[in-house]
Task: structure prediction
Amino acid sequence: MHPIKTLRYCLPAMAFAACTAQAQALDKSRIVYRCEHQGKVMYADEPCVGAKEVDVTPTQGLDKSSGVSRKGAEVRRDEHRRQLVQAIKPLDGRMDEKRFDQLVHRQPLSPEAQRACRQLDRQLPQLKSAEASATTESGKALAEVNLFRARKAFKDLRC
Result:
């Protein structure tokens, strides 16, 4: 086969593989909510009133149990990302893995959406603590609704 023709077929395949790998890396950071409704428990990626966040971060597994390092592509990619974050940290001073993933994920968003996401980043912890510290039923219900609205906006903006 001619080298130019081979390259023409390989480039789209490599671009697709890179996009797929990035999409899989972003899937790990998705938030899952535990919702209870009429005594039934349901897990969803959509927030609901009174939802609790569930940590679904996958584990890395054993690395050298047999004396040989057998790492999959995803683990190698994660290690490379961690090394990149450590290299950027002295320049930025605030960089950690969560912030790096956030920046990469939000980069394609519009400036307005990025600004709204940053605002929601500041509001969500306050709303969570307000829900946890609510003492009355009406105060707790109001806090749950406000938290739901903020989580819904966060998801709709694709923060």
